[in-house]
Amino acid sequence: MDGDRLGLGASPRRREDARFLIGKGAYLDDLVFPDVAHAVFVRSPHAHAGIRPVDATLARGSPGVLAVLTARDVAADGLNDLPPTVEANVQTGERFHFTPMPLLARDEVRYVGQLVALVVAETRAAALDAAELLRVAYEPRPPVMAPETAAAKPELLCMDWRLGDADAAFTDAAHIVSLRLHNHRIVTNLMEPRGVVGVYDTASEQYIAHVSSQSLHGNRDAIARVLNVPPERLRFVAPDVGGGFGAKNFPYPEQALIPWAARLCGRPVKWIASRTEVFVSDHQARDHLADASLALDADGRFLGLRVDSIANIGAYMCGGAGSLQTFQYPHLQGGIYTIPHVGLRIRTVLTNATPIGVTRGPGFAEAINVIERLIDAAAQKCGFDRATLRRRNMARTPMTNALGYAVDSGAFAETFDKALAAADLPGFAARRRDSESRGLLRGLGFACHIKATGGNPSENVDIRFEADGSVLLITGTQTIGQGHETTFPQIVEHCLGIPNDRVQLVQGDTAVIRAGGGHGSSRATYMGGTAIFRASEEIVAKGRPIAASMLEAAEADINFADGAFSIAGTDRSVGLLDVAAKARLSGTPLDTYHFWTREHMTFPNGTHVVEVEIDRGTGRVALVRHTAVDDYGVIVNPMIASGQAHGAIAQGSGQALMEHAVFDTQTGQCISGSFMDYTMPRADDFPAFNLTFNNTRCTTNPLGVKGCGEAAAVGMFPAINNAVADALGGDGILNGPVTSERIWRALNAGR
Questions:
Q1: Do 135 and 53 meet the contact criterion of CB atoms below 8 Å apart?
Q2: DSSP H or E run through 343
Q3: 527: which DSSP letter?
Q4: 17-25+457-597 and 288-453+601-750 agree in CATH topology
Q5: CA distances (Å), 637 to each of 6, 52, 496, 634, in order?
Q6: What is the rounded distance in angstroms from the CA atom of residue 242 to the CA atom of residue 272?
């Protein structure tokens, strides 16, 4: 393989798949721990209730039980509650109104699934049996489920923030269109459920948490504060992680409780969430209500955008929910369009639903849905062509929007036109007639998406040259299925010319690298890749004088390219790995650690065009055509980038067509709490994806890359909804997914 060039732009097969496909992965449930005990959590069956101290007498006497832990035990051992990761408005510094989440419920429970007690036993079956013997006295209270109701209660209002002013633009407008849009709640449903295996090392007094998590260092630090220990006394380990998409990005009480239980029991303790627990306890996503208006002049120029929104973040403010509303959501209001005036009111409220976290395109998906739905409504109600209306208002980069946020790159109009051409818009009329001949309604919709990526602003790498000629690349990022074991060595080969197969990625352990931003906001390639690039520059600088000595030349005459140092104007050279070996022997190794903090984000963008068919009799919606042109900057591995986009397309389509976390408004029960009631998309729900790229180099990092894991999810939700509206000849469905029932009701109401 040494003769192959597998740097940027190549598509070698994913290295990690070789072990995954033969069952050699190291996911949490694959790991073996001698003498492991098993944990089961008792969770609240009520959305809102007072709770008296738990009677654990019978449970503690059940066969095989090692411990039954309640809020009393938590208090007795001095553990802290779990606050959100973001506690204040990131723009203003104003502290949110919130109550930290208790590890185990004390005086009340606030949502179905909240932790009440922890049972540890020799086997999971024994723990389950003992859990049924717990006596928990609940005093049910009326839950608050509607965000509008919560917004009227000061004790449930976390934030009421206004920024920007668009009122004057509406005074002079020739056209004003308004919509009330609910970007409905969804369950992330990761392939590998959350879990923790806790170990306590009595000799070092160190807690060790083996976790399924996508942000090890940040979560480690948060849980260390909960356990009242310094971070160095808590180690987080995650060899392989089966998906995250944001739900594993922030800390949970279980990450503190399980290692704590291991210390109390004197042996490893294991908990793997059941799929039922996933539905009621994993951070959910979206649930964003927006009253939005767009002002236009007589020619269709956008004058102003006004949005009054309420974000339902559930029972507790968790993780980055506060940042979502104060950074992500306002960041790109108005999308890729020039809108001179934008006025926002953003309220964040608590209800008795499962807490909200983040998933693909958090905040950006909600904002882009608003503008893309408004544009189609404006075209339909004011007599404009929807494609022309978009072209007329598209910004050029570099751009700074009305709220002061800058976007460095993107060829928005060109990407849009390429997508419409690839989608064969002239042929749509014939396709619609064909559908009508079969008794089906056909609609075409499109949406232009953009997202900021970067996440945690700091990242680091450690590049070490080993005696056997291999290179260790130790990163603070965390793979959750994206293919980093393949793409990161490609970046090293691009920067240093080291053969791809000589580079070994090391990650997923807070003990092997001092810091790390994990994976969130499609940050890994941008942040980790930039750290690799800058570390590589330092390695070349360290190696140049050593190469000059080996070649018996002046240092000023030494060039570096394609993995070798050479004397300018000659064919004499020495390879980097040979220089590294010499440096090691001389006591000045080329090993390099680099830490950096970003100043800018990257902005993947694109256009998605879809066509749907609707059965008049049943309301069933089928996605029958999909075309997309996306801009992900310089692409490291086109095959992997395409796979990331395909996954995002599927996730965005799932929300648009079928996924919906539904709660009973009277009891607060999740009535879509299993796969019997919550529909996930399958392969036969999709047509072939016609995905191409129109990449513009990002100017905010030396590699020119942009995050590629989320953007397509941002575009698919409004594109499908616009297609349904086109098929129905109106605004379409403004609340929830476009399910058969909703379409059937809309069709019958139309009659």
A1: no
A2: strand 341-349
A3: I
A4: yes
A5: 9, 56, 17, 9
A6: 13
- Which residue is associated with the tokens 């627990």? 277
Give the bridge partners for 559, in sequence order: 566
Residue ranges per domain, the chain? 17-25+457-597, 31-142+191-243+248-281, 288-453+601-750
Distance CA 439, CA 615 (A): 7
Which residue is listed with tokens 């928990």?
Answer: 136
CATH topology of domain 31-142+191-243+248-281: Aldehyde Oxidoreductase; domain 3 (3.90.1170)
pTM for the whole structure: 0.96
User: Which strands form 558-561's sheet, in the order they lie side by side?
Assistant: 558-561, 564-567, 573-575
Q: Shortest CA distance to 64 belongs to which of 122, 17, 147?
A: 122
Q: What phi and psi, each to the nearest 5 degrees, are found at residue 88?
A: -145, 160
How buried is residue 485: exposed, middle or buried, by Cβ count under 10 Å (0-12/13-18/19+)?
buried
CA pair distance 234, 221, nearest whole angstrom: 8
Q: How far is CA 520 from CA 257, 360, 407, 639, 640, in A?
A: 24, 9, 20, 21, 17
Q: How many whole angstroms separate alpha carbon 706 and alpha carbon 142?
A: 47
| One-letter-per-residue 3-state SS of 621-689 | EEEEEEEEEEECECCCCHHHHHHHHHHHHHHHHHHHHCCCCCECCCCCCECCCCCCCCCCCCHHHCCCE
CATH architecture of 288-453+601-750: 2-Layer Sandwich (3.30)
Give the model confidence (pLDDT) of 547-603 as tens digits.
999 999 999 999 999 999 999 999 999 999 999 999 999 999 999 999 999 999 999
CA dihedral 79→81→84→89, nearest 10 degrees, is -110
The neighbouring-strand residues paired with 630 are: 606, 693
CA atoms within 13 A on the CB side of 78: 4
d(CA 268, CA 284): 29
Give Cα 106 distance to the centre of its chain. 31
Is there a contact between 294 and 372 (Cβ–Cβ < 8 Å)?
A: no
Tens digits of residue pLDDT in 316-328: 999 999 999 999 9
Locate the DSSP E strands across 451-499: 458-465, 471-475
Encoded tokens for 676: 């019997």
CATH of domain 17-25+457-597: 3.30.365.10
How many residues are given for the chain? 751
Mean pLDDT for the stretch of residues 132-146: 98
Angle, in degrees to the nearest 10, between helices 254-265 and 216-227: 60
pLDDT digits (tens, 9 = 90+) for 102-135: 999 999 999 999 999 999 999 999 999 999 999 9
